[in-house]
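Friendly challenge for the regulars: who can give me the structure tokens for this chain first? No prize, just bragging rights.
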Amino acid sequence: MTETPLKLFNSLTRQLEEFQPIHAGEAPDFVAEARVYSCGPTVYNYQHIGNMRAYVFADTLGRVLQWKGYKLTHVINITDVGHLTSDADEGEDKMEKMAARENKSAWDIAKFYQEDFERDLARLNVQPKQHPRATEYVEAMIAWGQKIADKHCYELDSGLYFDVSTVDDYGRLARAVTDEGEGRIDTVEGKRNAADFAIWRKTPAGETRQMEWDSPWGKGAPGWHLECSVMGEALLGFPFDIHTGGIDHREIHHPNEIAQNQAYCCTNGLDDARNSGARIWMHNNFLVERSGKMSKSAGEFLRLQLLVDKGYHPLAYRLMCLQAHYRSELEFSWEGLQAATTRLKRMVMGLRQTQEARFGQAAGATVPPPPTRIDALRVKITHPKLRPLLDKFEAAILDDLNTSVALTALEEVIATKKVPVDQKADLALGMLWPLGLMVLTREDLRIRPADAQITEEEIDAELLRRKEARAAKDFATSDAIRESLAAKGVEVMDGDPLGWEWRL
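First reply, four minutes later:
Bragging rights claimed.
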């Protein structure tokens, strides 16, 4: 079988493109490198699960690139300054606003919520990435503004603004430009074009901000869009391979990034995608939740910790994301999360059985398997029942990350009988890694809800007593134990085909 190319949907060209790394690799190994930049969170609050879908997608992309054999350099920035309450140049700074509300410094707010974000990434089995903070690059942002100011910017009382008419093809990524410019950007008095955006925001007269710096345009803070251009160039170099983000970034933030990149590099139009700063731009679609609790303005919004508090393992949410294509809307519901949990349990049982048969009872439970490259799997997997499943998985995952089909191939491997156990185990683990899943135990998946009234040890003791009562045909005692457990939130699962016995 000839090698299957990795094809990715480029939002800039609106078509599938074969991935060709820009950086061929250096001595001594000359392994080609994939450089990826993902727009990170503004750390003024907890991240809701809709935000986290973007990082499950970006992590899956990075894993597939590694699975394909590329060396990966992946950056997810941390916005700790400059982001206003809307994507346009209006409203209060999110960091300053939350600092005032909680009576803390903006620096403390950023540190607290960045650490919480990184904990959520770890719980979702997102590989460690570089997490540069915007405040670490303010001097570089000022230098960037100075380089492009004469040809591309103009100054108003409120700050330094980028004139979008000075670059070719502004808005091509969004393809939403009207005669008035980008529709969601409100007019600021004095702007030449409605779509013009702030490179530097001056601190208003009479005000003092916690986060402000001296600049040639007065004391103030950088515009939100500038940080990604500066950090992308500093850490990955222009052009780099792939830029990712949520689909909402496709309309304003990323077109503005691209315009800055064009100005800085003195490049031409976007018929050549590399002139945008990245060769491929990728966007994941929204996670939709019908009750309205996805928005942080809703108060107790949906965040990963809430899922855990209700007894769901974080990887059930990752699996839920993988069940849909990243470019499709994904609707969240508790029923859907429960279905993903059941599917994860089935996979866990099959994987444990396969792993124990291959490696013995002492095999590790939660240690994720090492990345097994596709070329190594092709050498190992030769059985006529298993090789077509490897081909199916490879074709799916390399077809713009079609994880939903890849998952079915993994499940077919787990269910396959009468094949060499070493090949089955190697193939299952080799498929598991690019999906970002891992071998778990029943105990790992039994997450204790925050309001649970009983410990697992107490449950096991009661179930043992119930088993003894049933063996003695003392069904009255057996029923009484079952009802007592139910009153404490424990569902005894007699006859469960998965054999899980109980759940909270």
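The chain has 16 helices and 16 strands. Residues 187 and 395 are 48 Å apart (CA to CA). Your move, everyone else.
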